[in-house]
Amino acid sequence: MKPNLLYDELLEIAKSLGYKIRKETGNFKSGNCIIKQENLIILNKFGSLSSFNKTIATAIKSKGDTDIFIKPQIREFIDGVSEDPNLFTITEETIQK
Questions:
Q1: What is the pTM of this model?
Q2: Which residue of 1, 41, 88, 97 is surrounded by the most CB atoms within 10 Å?
Q3: Which residue in 45, 20, 9 sits closest to 30, CA to CA?
Q4: Residues spanned by the domain of 80
């Protein structure tokens, strides 16, 4: 599957799982976070399409098993993405510490 089509499919899946996706500029790695009970995926605007796909797939994977249908090719990509140990989930509790 072409990377841009994969990106579109992953975006739709993430949105159906309740994620909001934002592209921002700055000196940070892309990742997913929870702020005030809102699930966000923040993508570094200067990242590559490949890194966007991996970041979104990691967020989807972190949700665990879902009841939505995911095409086999996309499921295979999501299952094949290993979680980056440098990425972490930011929660409201983390911010307050």
A1: 0.77
A2: 41
A3: 45
A4: 3-96
